[in-house]
Write a structure and sequence with these properties.
The chain has helices at residues 2-32, 38-83, 137-140, 181-185, 283-293, 319-325, 364-371, 406-420, 440-449, and strands at residues 87-101, 106-126, 130-135, 143-149, 155-157, 159-164, 169-175, 203-208, 216-227, 238-241, 253-255, 261-268, 278-282, 308-309, 312-317, 330-336, 352-356, 359-360, 379-388, 391-400, 402-403, 430-431, 434-436, 454-455. With 456 residues, the chain is of the alpha+beta class. 29% of the residues are buried.
């Protein structure tokens, strides 16, 4: 019995000591932060992991921005390398007539100069015989000679195939027979994009002969679509861009990032308070002109005695007159000469000529320019707007041009001189190449401009 009590007492003592040790260890652990619950450790681990992932994500996004920026830069550079052989520089030697007045009231005889003007163009086609280039009409107008400089700096004489003054576009060509094989091998035809699919904010690249010193590249975005710009000699809706467009860029390429031609650069709005407002003619508009005029033969200079004669007396209907009288713009046929080519055709007085030989025109000077490249006996299409039941309807008329009467050849030359101010037929006294200027001469000029005296 005594032995049993000893065992029980020992067990109780051991239990008490063990319990005290466990309580003591827990107390010390809590007091000195030796141990932490597993749940706490997990809670502290979770935000540390999230922070690490966020940092990695931010770093990744930053790298994506850098990579995207680098991709854009190198993408533009690669695009330029690809399309530069499709863009050309154009030099037009324009006839310029200088008229001036001295401080003492004397009018100096007109002097004619040739002044170089610079522009750009885009190769849009090639045949077995020629390279076809589109540019602006104002780049090639009044041309006495025209030359094109290709990407390898070779410069070759070019010829006008056709123009559309209402859209300010022209098609010119260079004969392959005049070109070196190395130049031909380096040329590319630029693909046309669909300008109707453009979105505002879309990145674009402009390439052209800025300032006439060689090809240069600018970048920007589509700022707006379908802009009507009254200052530009075009009736078309234009693309607006903030890519730099400068003198010499006219006729150059506006490209999307696929390397497709989506516009023909045409002009900029200038002014000290204006920045980044340039315009381009949409590619879809250009496509119509390319399809219509590319197949035409290059213009040739026809001797005056062989030039075709229409036989009309006409007057320009400008924008202001057209709006005030509710008439189409164009060339108003005031009178048809008896037994002339016009008289033998379906052309009628009061018709308004709007196109000749598939080329849209608005003025007599444009018609005259076209007739200088057509021989007597050739048949050409003339498009007119004719008043029918109170509205103007469009008609196409075939006209076989006649010979210009000799007396009209002389009259035409005199009229040109008078218009340019080089005629000395005024009533003033002529003194060593100068003539005395009378203010009454201006009244004569004013009345002449309102007369119906232009015959072609």
């Amino acid at each position: 019995m005594k032995k049993v009590l000893s065992v029980i007492i020992s067990a109780i003592a051991f239990g008490l000591i063990a319990g005290c040790v466990i309580v003591g260890v827990n107390y010390l652990a809590k007091e000195f932060n030796v141990l932490q619950p597993v749940s706490v450790a997990v809670e502290k681990e979770t935000p540390a992991s999230t922070e690490n992932e966020t940092t990695k994500k931010s770093s990744k996004e930053s790298n994506n921005v850098v990579e995207s920026s680098e991709s854009y830069v190198y993408g533009v550079a690669n695009l330029v390398d690809e399309v530069m052989p499709s863009v050309v520089s154009i030099t037009n030697m324009q006839k310029f007539i200088q008229n001036g007045y001295s401080l003492f009231g004397f009018r100096q005889q007109a002097r004619e100069y040739e002044v170089p003007a610079s522009g750009s163009g885009v190769i849009v086609g090639m045949t077995d015989d020629e390279v076809i280039i589109i540019t602006n009409n104002h780049v090639v107008t009044d041309s006495s000679s025209l030359s094109v400089t290709f990407n390898d700096t070779e410069t070759i004489e070019a010829a006008i195939k056709g123009v559309d003054s209402t859209k300010d576009l022209a098609i010119i060509s260079v004969a392959k027979s005049k070109m070196k094989k190395t130049t031909l091998d380096g040329l590319k035809v630029m693909p046309l994009g669909n300008s109707d699919d453009l979105k505002v904010g879309e990145p674009v690249v402009a390439i052209g002969n800025a300032l006439g010193i060689g090809q240069s590249v600018t970048t920007g975005v589509i700022s707006a679509k379908d802009r009507i710009v009254e200052e530009i000699n075009s009736t078309e809706k234009l693309i607006q861009t903030d890519a730099a467009i400068n003198p010499g860029n006219s006729g150059g390429a506006l490209l999307n990032l696929k390397g497709e031609l989506i516009g023909i650069n045409v002009a900029k709005t200038a002014g000290t308070a204006i920045e980044g407002v340039g315009y381009a003619i949409p590619a879809n508009t250009a496509q119509v002109v390319i399809d219509t005029l590319s197949s035409k033969k290059p213009r040739e200079t026809v001797p005056e005695e062989e030039q075709g004669y229409l036989g009309i007396t006409a007057k320009n209907i400008d924008t202001q007159t057209a709006e005030s009288l509710d008439m189409p713009e164009g060339i108003y046929v005031f009178r048809i000469t008896e037994d002339s080519a016009a008289a033998k055709s379906d052309l009628k007085e009061k018709d308004i000529i709007v196109a000749f030989d598939d080329q849209n025109i608005k003025t007599l000077s444009e018609l005259q320019e076209l007739l200088q490249h057509v021989r007597a006996g050739e048949t050409k299409k003339i498009k007119v707007k004719r008043l029918d039941g109170g509205t103007y309807v469009e008609k196409e008329i075939d006209v076989t041009l006649g010979n210009r009467p000799k007396e009209l050849q002389t009259e035409t030359e005199e009229a040109k001189k008078e218009d340019s101010g080089s005629s000395n037929q005024n009533s003033g006294n002529q003194l060593d190449g100068y003539e005395y200027y009378s203010p009454f001469d201006d009244f004569g000029d004013m009345f002449r401009q309102f007369g119906f005296g232009s015959m072609w």
